[in-house]
Amino acid sequence: MTQRLIREVFASAFDNVYLRKLDDASVVGLRKGRYAMTTDSFVVDPIFFPGGDIGKLAVCGTVNDLASCAAEPRYLSASFVIEEGLPFDVLESVVSSMAQEARQQRVLIITGDTKVVPRGKADKLFINTTGIGLVHKTLEASMIRPGDKILINGPVAQHGVSVLAARQEFEGRESLKSDCKSLWPIVKLLLQEHVDVRFMRDPTRGGVSAAANEIAQSSGFSLVLAEQDIPVTASCKSFCEILGLEPLDIANEGKMLFFMGEKDAYRALRILKSVPSCRRASVIGDVLPERTGKVYLRTAAGGSRILGMPVAEALPRIC
Amino acid sequence: MTQRLIREVFASAFDNVYLRKLDDASVVGLRKGRYAMTTDSFVVDPIFFPGGDIGKLAVCGTVNDLASCAAEPRYLSASFVIEEGLPFDVLESVVSSMAQEARQQRVLIITGDTKVVPRGKADKLFINTTGIGLVHKTLEASMIRPGDKILINGPVAQHGVSVLAARQEFEGRESLKSDCKSLWPIVKLLLQEHVDVRFMRDPTRGGVSAAANEIAQSSGFSLVLAEQDIPVTASCKSFCEILGLEPLDIANEGKMLFFMGEKDAYRALRILKSVPSCRRASVIGDVLPERTGKVYLRTAAGGSRILGMPVAEALPRIC
Fold first, then answer.
1. Contact A71/B33, CB-based, under 8 Å?
2. Over 70: is that where the pLDDT of B235 sits?
3. Contact A316 B116 (CB under 8 A)
4. For chain A, N or C: smaller number of CB within 10 Å?
5. Domain ranges of chain A
């Protein structure tokens, strides 16, 4: 059964010269260099949501963690924990969307694993992907300088909101599409255009609030974000208002926060806006000279407040 | 909470210069070469068993898949799916045994992930480890030649039997210890002694039966195993007899099947026997010239039968 599953579902969908051997490990030749390695287990509930599914998410999530290190995604592993009784066509559909995203990103899934656990011992399907990528530029939070600008490539909160909406029968939930997307293409574009990016971070769990606070802490500088410059779609905004959610706390899966000097920032903004998926890219904040590692939010009303780390996980199982 | 968990449990136990940054990915310098990559999700039930636990297993399992490619384990990722309510000290104990095994094997856990799912949506703890190792020698099943000998480094079936016994209150179950062990040290020893190993495979799920059948199929040659030469401990043997289990079908986590020419095989046997954990190493079979990809078992009674691929997974959640 496991053998059939591996051959018919995984090996045929992900087909490549490495995986074809069906060995316990795959061997690849690497040239000398700096490589990024990252891992993520995906337990999103539900496994299908508007704009994506757990399979697409499992590829994009790991590709984006590599991209945030300026690493070109090369090889992925994929490991599945399957609850007994999961319909075969559900698994096939998830695997096919993984394969499609991997193909589009030219990343090879070279090794894998499958475990089936009895009914009730897992929730349908968990996927781990681990990725290796070749680093094109060394980025560290310590490279951030006062006066640097903070950019984002589009509206926030779409992923978390779409998953949350998919759990319930919210009216108009189809308009709340996840932003789940691989970000290496836009990172590569900025690097090719010699934009001097100093640091990047994809604001996933805990949203922009968590990412900004982590960066403030590791760079040592305080950050200020301008609420009115942070793009949020109208449908996302009203959904958050109804449920009393702060869009900045909500997970994204196709967004990147970029830190760079002012001149580069406005050039990067023009480049990003030329990409259809990034038309709403925006400069959303500044790095302050103050060395307290805090994040301030300049509200639309003209006030200013501290934007804290989200205390509780507002939305569990969002990725 | 997640942040505290990461800092206090994982980062302190696995501490190294890469992980310390707590970035979403870690960057390592690699020299030009051939690298093996392998992934495994561990869902063993129970998570503690005589001779090991899910943490030790998660390191050994991945190290051994690398070792079977003659790859020196270098870097691991570790990803945890935790059922809400798992006692903190249980997690700590598992993480500490992972850290200990990794330290002993000089492999660094450089990146990780944690997901907490609600009670009843996972079974206590699942761990994924993905590993990268530098390949010291290229091994392929196609290098196997008729007349080659098959070696094993000790008694079979100990891991599966110990886990099964741990699920019940079997008398004397403490004598049924898992063989869970990292095999890179013995593989390295054989390579250093210039033993011309042609192929290796660790007989985990499906035991020696599954591994032998897979190798027979991929090499194209038939294999013959001599039942009386295959080491099994007395306690393991009687446990299997009582439950009607075939020891050759049962998972190992510290065994390797080695394929090599006769001269090398007997030299390797002497080398292995000098290692305390391998005193019961044995030459257990031969590669036949027949190109049918079958596995025969020469029984102790003098007969011969086909040793098939185990049909059903006799023991689910063994790793």
1. no
2. yes
3. yes
4. N
5. 2-135, 141-306
